[in-house]
Amino acid sequence: MTLIKTQALLLKKINFQDSSTIIHFFTREQGKIAVIAKGSRQLKSQFRGYLEPLNLLDIIYYEKSTRDVQTLSKADLIKNFVVNLKDIQATYFSLAILEVLDKIIHQNEENQALFDLTVKALKYIDKNSSEPETGFIVFLFGAIKILGYRMDLNHCNFCGRDLKNFYFDMKVPQPVCFNCSYHHFEEITADQLVWLKSVDNLDFVQEIPPIKQSQKSARIVAFLLAYAGMYFDFQPKLNSLEMLKYLN
Ligand SMILES: [Zn+2]
């Protein structure tokens, strides 16, 4: 049995027996792991209040390689993102980031670059709570690139022609030109493509250009999610974003 200390973000938690919780963490050192937090639902538990989504934690757990679920020993709060839960947009876009992560990373697959990008994205949304969608988009771009599926926004993915604007379909979520599109394809306008290109390749270290009203579109998020969904095999509908639509 080894004692492991790492930073962690909570992806999912499930009540277990009378007073415990099974937690799925995305950790910086060990990738996605599952741990049991024994007695965490008791009033006097040392874990109480820490094991919540949008908390960045320092955790210590016991690892036994023959086990699927490890044992959490200690959790300390480093930072809580989106403290103001009244900020519904910021909260749900931050939760959407965790939801995407849960779908695109595998158990015990370490990816420090993706972990660091996630923390930067959550910090960005925490600081710029009026621009949560921008944070989410830059995160998605970065995650797709880190995992090796960077998209080509310059050329039609079917015929190779230069793109000024592009079209996509939820089943064919690749940027294609007008000639290669069908009537049911949706358009990303030239104005929107200019902004998309300006944030492609940013990773929160640089200044992020604000999105103009005319460039705002739910289609951008829909397109990126469909693209990621195609490569990582998940349904592009996220519970957190569906919830946000419902609340709006
Ligand atoms: Zn084409």
How would you summarize the topology of this molecule?
Blueprint: E1 2-16, E2 20-27, E3 31-37, E4 55-63, E5 69-80, H1 88-104, H2 112-127, H3 132-146, E6 166-168, E7 186-188, H4 190-199, H5 218-232, H6 239-247
Parallel strand pairs: 3-5
Antiparallel strand pairs: 1-2, 1-4, 2-3, 4-5, 6-7
Bound molecules: zinc ion (ZN).
Residues 156, 158-159, 161, 176-177, 179-180 line the site of zinc ion.
Can you walk through the features of this model?
With 248 residues, the chain is of the alpha+beta class. It has two domains: 2-80, Nucleic acid-binding proteins (OB fold (Dihydrolipoamide Acetyltransferase, E2P), Beta Barrel), CATH 2.40.50.140; 88-247, Up-down Bundle (de novo design (two linked rop proteins)). The chain has six helices and seven strands; from the N terminus they run βββββαααββααα. The protein has helices at residues 88-104, 112-127, 132-146, 190-199, 218-232, 239-247, and strands spanning 2-16, 20-27, 31-37, 55-63, 69-80, 166-168, 186-188. The strands form two sheets. Strands 1-2-3-5-4 form a five-stranded mixed beta barrel. It has a two-stranded antiparallel ribbon with strand order 6-7. The longest helix is centred in the middle third of the chain and has 17 residues, at 88-104. It is elongated and about 60 Å long. The termini are far apart.
